[in-house]
Amino acid sequence: MSQPGPPGAYPVPPPGWQYHRQPPRKKKTGLLIVLLALGTVMVLGLAFGGYWIFLREGDSDAPPPVDVSQDVAKAPIGCAVFDKSEVARYIPGRTDFEAGSANSSSDSLEQGQCAWNNTDTFIKDKVRAAHVIVTSYVYRATRTKSGVDAAKEHLKRRVRNGVSVNVKDADEALLVEHGKRGHSVAVTARYRNIVYHVDYTNQTDGAPVKDGVTALATAAIGKVAPKH
């Protein structure tokens, strides 16, 4: 029987055994959260700054806003352009009144047409056939052009071989003859963003067709131009 060791003695550990004490792990979660937050703020700041610079540069190169100061908001169109009595003097015999087509409207254009003629009565009245047709256009501004610019383009695009004619208060007016006998003439007149196209045909020999269509176009423009 072995004797216990002296007081205070401890048993000797077996060979090769070592005691390692692990230091406690430090928590790094809070530090990571702070770093991630700072990184997010920096990325957002850089992105916002770049976008602001892009807008500034884009604005400097952007075209000026469309000028609509000369556009007229409303104008008579279609059958509202003329009263029957205004065209009766240009059509021999009794005249019939009928709408040539229904009015139409969109974001960029309001359009109408109306016709006056003696088609059903000229034989009975022993006169020659005649008619007046007015087609009206009121152009509205878009993101890229004003109504005035659109109306100017209308004349360039649709009126060819026209000659300038004097229509009071019109910004421009062009006359076109149809046929060789001089029985049919058209005048297209523009006031700002409004265009009136007047067709006049009168087969009466010697009828002053050019004077008549010019007078009708002048009357139409007079309904939208300011009174002096």
Low-confidence blocks of residues: 1-5
- Overall mean pLDDT stands at 82
C-alpha geometry: elongated
Q: Given the structure, what is the number of helices? A: 4
List how many beta strands DSSP finds: 7
Q: Order of strands side by side in the largest beta sheet? A: 1-2-3-7-6-5-4
Q: Report the end-to-end length measured between terminal Cα atoms.
A: 141 Å
**Strand portion, in percent?**
15-25%
* Derived structural class: alpha+beta
| Element-level helix/strand string | HHEEEHEEEEH
How does this model look, in words?
The protein has a seven-stranded antiparallel β-sheet. Residues 1-5 have low confidence and may be disordered. It has helices spanning 29-61, 84-88, 147-158, 209-222; strands at residues 96-105, 109-117, 130-139, 163-164, 172-178, 184-191, 194-202. The chain is elongated. It has four helices and seven strands, in the order ααβββαββββα. By secondary structure, the chain is of the alpha+beta class. It is 28% helix and 24% strand.
Question: What is shown here, in short?
Answer:
By secondary structure, the protein is of the alpha+beta class. It has helices at about 30-60, 85-90, 145-160, 210-220; strands spanning about 95-105, 110-115, 130-140, 165, 170-180, 185-190, 195-200. Strands 1-2-3-7-6-5-4 form a seven-stranded antiparallel β-sheet.
